[in-house]
Amino acid sequence: MCPGPIRGQRLRSPAFRADQPGGQPLPCAAPLRAEPVFFKTGSSGFSGTGLSTALQDIGITRLIVAGAAIDYCVSSTVRAASDLGFAVDLVTDAVFGFSATGPDGAVHDPDIVLSVTLAALGADFARLVTADTVVWPAASA
To answer: Is 63 helix (H, G, I), strand (E, B) or coil?
Structure first.
């Protein structure tokens, strides 16, 4: 089960429409009855969603972030959350990335992309944690 008062977001994009394969959340992220669902319009979970206000309204100051893909939506969400004043715990063994092709045409291994992105996020935007060390509910420290 995915604990927490707000767990899921869905991206409004042709690839992630509810009527398309892969458009439904995984069972652990399916909204509970009466749980809010935020439809994002960009790569950040805060983009056009009202999520920041909803979290602030219920007193949330620390976020636990996991998801896909580290160098796209996860990175954008973590950076935005930090910029908005939230403390962020990024669960390093609950994220993944894809390979990336550089401007020189070199293909970078997914593990390298993951490592570099985690290093950048951990330097300024999030506390890096593993799933076995996540404290729930998240302390505000």
So the answer is: strand
DSSP SS3 for 72: helix
Residues 6+ apart with CB under 8 A from 28: 1, 2
Residue with tokens 């970078």: 108
Better-predicted residue by pLDDT, 18 or 40: 40
Residues sharing a CB contact under 8 Å with residue 88, sequence separation 6 or more, in sequence order: 62, 63, 65, 78, 81, 82, 125, 126, 127
- Partner residues linked to 39 by β-bridges: 10
What are 126-129's contacts with CB under 8 Å, separation 24+? 126/65, 126/78, 126/82, 126/88, 126/89, 126/90, 127/87, 127/88, 127/89, 127/90, 128/90, 128/92, 129/64, 129/89, 129/90, 129/91, 129/92
Summarised one tens digit per residue, pLDDT across range 58-106 is 999 999 999 888 999 999 999 999 999 999 999 999 999 899 999 999 9
Q: What is the pTM of this model?
A: 0.81
